[in-house]
Design a protein that fits this description.
Blueprint lengths: L1 E5 L4 E4 L4 E2 L3 E5 L2 E4 L5 E4 L3 E3 L3 E9 L4 E3 L3 E8 L2 E3 L5 E5 L7 E4 L3 E2 L4 E6 L10 E4 L3 E2 L4 E5 L14 E3 L3 E2 L1
Parallel strand pairs: 1-4, 2-5, 3-6, 4-7, 5-8, 6-8, 7-9, 8-10, 9-11, 10-12, 10-13, 12-15, 13-16, 14-17, 15-18, 16-19, 17-20
């Protein structure tokens, strides 16, 4: 497997396609970014996030699963699946820390009580709030929902579709 350790605010960025039969094990506190608009990263192994942040920015990450174990998954892109390998702090956060976005999961998703779904809401237009879109069933399973309004004050009657599932929604 590829072993990637990012320290501090460092970023390891893949702007060209990553493919082939490899597993990625990510450690540290920085970010591994699978970027590049329209790029489909198709390595056939898995991506284990044992710390730090994995990010998909305008791309598709088609791997067996992104496994979070005290890690974070962010971005405006697509992942094949997300699983949770334990840990006490796992975060799923569409967009970036400063911009909103849509993170799409192309399979069923089961969160757990160590998972926080972190979403930003900056206005009522769909491009002004984060969205988690699941193509399958979604089980929230006692996960924490954390909303960041950053000074935006929604009016009574404002609605936001921040989490959606094409299948059943439970938990």
């Amino acid at each position: 497997p590829w072993q990637i350790t990012t320290i501090g605010n460092s970023i390891a960025r893949f702007t060209q396609q990553v493919s082939g039969g490899t597993n990625i094990i990510q450690r540290g506190t920085g970010t591994v970014d699978f970027g590049g608009a329209g790029i489909n990263h198709t390595f056939t192994g898995s991506h284990s996030v044992l710390g730090g942040t994995a990010s998909v920015t305008g791309s598709t990450l088609t791997v067996g699963n992104v496994t979070l174990n005290n890690g974070q998954l962010t971005g405006s892109g697509e992942v094949n699946g997300i699983s949770f390998g334990g840990g006490t702090t796992n975060v799923v956060a569409p967009g970036t820390p400063t911009t909103t976005g849509i993170l799409t999961v192309d399979s069923h998703l089961t969160l757990n009580n160590s998972t926080t779904v972190r979403l930003k809401i900056r206005g009522t237009s769909s491009n002004l709030y984060d969205q988690l879109a699941v193509d399958g069933n979604l089980n929230l399973n006692d996960a924490t929902l954390q909303l960041d309004f950053d000074g935006f004050n929604p009016a009574v009657g404002d609605t936001f579709t921040i989490i959606s599932a094409s299948g059943n929604l439970s938990g």
